[in-house]
Design brief:
3 helices
Length: 81
């Protein structure tokens, strides 16, 4: 069974950088902040003990992997001339 690992904004930024996705602190914060509709771009939540934003590390990685898979599927399933 895989162990759950919750990480904060700094750690999430490092995980993404290790994957080749370089984001500034401001970009990372923007992805974690709620928009006008109350939605976040990434599923961060407020840790009830620390009061800081957290995300599950595996979830963050899976989101980026799924985006890559969707892009590849879109490419291969496009109408060809």
């Amino acid at each position: 069974m895989k162990r759950t690992c919750y990480i904060g904004l700094k750690e999430a930024r490092k995980v993404l950088a290790d994957m080749g996705v370089s984001l500034s602190d401001r970009q990372m914060k923007r992805a974690a902040d709620k928009d006008a509709a109350g939605q976040r771009k990434l599923p961060f939540f407020i840790d009830p003990i620390e009061g800081r934003l957290k995300i599950e590390k595996g979830t963050l990685v899976r989101i980026y992997q799924q985006c890559q898979i969707d892009a590849e599927n879109s490419y291969y399933n496009r109408d060809k001339p």
